[in-house]
UniProtKB/TrEMBL annotation:
EC number: 6.1.1.17
Catalysed reactions listed for this entry: tRNA(Glu) + L-glutamate + ATP = L-glutamyl-tRNA(Glu) + AMP + diphosphate
Enzyme class, broadest EC rank: ligase
Subcellular locations according to the entry: Cytoplasm
InterPro entries in the cross-refs: aa-tRNA-synth_I_cd-bd, aa-tRNA-synth_I_codon-bd_sub2, aa-tRNA-synth_I_CS, aa_tRNA-synth_I_cd-bd_sf, Glu-tRNA-ligase_bac/mito, Glu/Gln-tRNA-synth, Glu/Gln-tRNA-synth_Ib_cat-dom, GluQ/Sye
Lineage: Bacteria, Candidatus Macinerneyibacteriota, Candidatus Mcinerneyibacteria, Candidatus Mcinerneyibacteriales, Candidatus Mcinerneyibacteriaceae
Function: Catalyzes the attachment of glutamate to tRNA(Glu) in a two-step reaction: glutamate is first activated by ATP to form Glu-AMP and then transferred to the acceptor end of tRNA(Glu).
Main localization (coarse): cytoplasm
Protein name (database record): Glutamate--tRNA ligase
Gene3D superfamilies: 1.10.10.350, HUPs
Length: 480
């Protein structure tokens, strides 16, 4: 049976790169009816807390992802937090020492820095020189007497060329002598990443490792450990980087507003839209389709359709996709999702008023947070006022359309009526008979005093969403 794992460090925020890795693991595992494991890599005590772990899990669940084993639900191969597995790492590191495949290294940080500087000056790669590989008993006792606490280093066979096959990038190899003896266990007893993941993946019977391609060359160190123990290597698939639109590293510095899942949620992106978009960053389904349900993605997801080329994070495409999902969900879910965004800034007297306003803007928004701007002039703010602004440019446009004459006639018609909300279609017919103006001038002259802009919502829906008395008030104030 296929077994995969997503193994994040719980720093509290889930980056979109990590989110895509979690998604690809989920889709691949579900496609093969396998087991997906959530493992928390929390050996960095300064950055990892239980609270940040809870936040991470909450964000994964918001994305609609689940797992079959993990720290929150348990499983047969736990514990699922690295901080609770330290004795295992110590046990296997000491086994390697017994096998003469690793050794205790007593070099201090200062000595290691000197070695690196010397190697640089000599034009050599700054790799460990193996000083502690063959210490005598006397040297070891001397270091112990000095109070030095050793690390455990892996003995790299410098005469061997190491390689592995990657499901996305093909064969990856490193020349003889390209890697120095690397640390397995630090002096405080905590494992380094490359050692811990091998022990965990082996003991948890992980068959496929899907992760970012920034780990490609880490994997060469890991296969050394697998081979030394005589363990079967898992299948590796390293996912390409996600780049900003300018092809630089994805970051706020590159002009990308949101880079964490929590930020997309807060900005009003729908779960379905975000996972649809992330799935297409490096993977492509059969055909030209871009809108896919989670079920369709599970059915079609295979590694042979994952590209080794870097994917570009196209924010415009994500917004377009999110807008599609907003317009396609059922009304009940739409009202439920947009209500918190409306409630944050606006006041409405009753449910009908809320639904009228939400319906009015639905075709105009790409994210739920767009409602803040789109509802100006439609609903009152928390102070009971309408947020309306009329720029100098918009007033000049109004004058170009000879708008004052149109509005004066429009007001006469409105004041003859007594309904709370008007049917613009009826009033418009009468207005056409009273003024000498084309449709463009008429519509824009009506819209500008009411909303402060030339373009926007369907006029009939707009005028049926604002009370007649309020429309009269705005028009009178605008032309006075």
């Amino acid at each position: 049976m296929i077994r995969t794992r997503f193994a994040p460090s719980p720093t509290g925020k889930l980056h979109v790169g990590g989110a895509r890795t979690a998604l690809f693991n989920y889709l691949f595992t579900k496609h093969h009816d396998g087991i997906n494991v959530l493992r928390i890599e929390d050996t960095d005590k300064n950055r990892s807390t239980k609270e940040s772990e809870k936040k991470l899990i909450k964000q994964l669940k918001w994305m609609g992802l689940d797992w079959d084993e993990g720290p929150d639900i348990g499983g047969p191969y736990g514990p699922y937090r690295q901080s609770e597995r330290t004795e295992l790492y110590k046990e296997y590191a000491e086994k390697l020492v017994e096998m003469d495949a690793a050794y205790y290294c007593y070099c201090t940080d200062e000595e290691l820095e000197e070695k690196r500087e010397k190697a640089k000056k000599e034009g050599k790669p700054p790799i460990y020189d193996g000083h502690c590989r063959n210490l005598t008993d006397e040297q070891i006792e001397k270091y112990k007497d000095e109070g030095r606490k050793p690390v455990i280093r892996f003995k790299v066979d410098k005469n061997k060329k190491y390689s592995f096959s990657d499901n996305i990038h093909g064969n990856i190899e490193i020349e003889e002598g390209g890697v120095g003896d690397f640390v397995l266990l630090r002096s405080d007893g905590l494992p380094v990443y490359n050692f811990a993941v091998v022990i965990d993946d082996h003991l948890m019977k992980i068959t496929h490792v899907l992760r970012g391609d920034d780990h490609l060359y880490n994997t060469l160190r890991q296969v050394m450990i697998y081979d030394t123990f005589g363990w079967e290597r898992p299948n590796f698939a390293h996912l390409s980087m996600i780049l900003a639109p300018d092809k630089s590293k994805l970051s706020k510095r590159a002009g990308v507003k949101n880079t964490y899942v929590k930020e997309f949620k807060e900005d009003g992106y729908l779960t379905e839209a975000l996972i649809n978009f992330l799935a297409l960053l490096g993977w492509s389904p059969d055909g030209e389709r871009e809108i896919l349900s989670k079920e369709e993605m599970i059915q079609e997801f295979t590694l042979d359709r994952v590209s080794p080329s870097a994917a570009v994070f196209d924010v415009k495409k994500l917004k377009w996709m999110n807008g599609k999902y907003i317009r396609n969900i059922d009304d009940k879910k739409y009202y439920e999702l947009i209500r918190p965004f409306v409630d944050e800034y606006y006041y409405y007297e009753n449910e009908m008023k809320f639904k009228k306003a939400a319906d009015l803007i639905r075709d105009s928004i790409d994210t739920l947070s767009d409602s803040k701007e789109e509802l100006k002039g439609i609903l009152k703010n928390k102070d009971g006022e309408y947020d309306l602004e009329y720029s100098k440019k918009i007033r000049e446009k109004f004058d170009e359309y000879n708008g004052k004459e149109i509005i004066e006639e429009f007001l006469k018609l409105l004041k003859k009526r007594d309904e709370k909300y008007i049917d613009l279609r009826e009033v418009y017919k009468e207005l056409q008979n009273r003024v000498d103006a084309g449709g463009k001038a008429l519509f824009r002259s009506l819209r500008i005093p009411v909303l402060g802009k030339e373009h926007g919502f369907d006029m009939v829906e707009l005028f049926s969403s604002i009370e007649r008395e309020e429309i009269i008030r705005r028009c009178e104030n605008f032309i006075c």
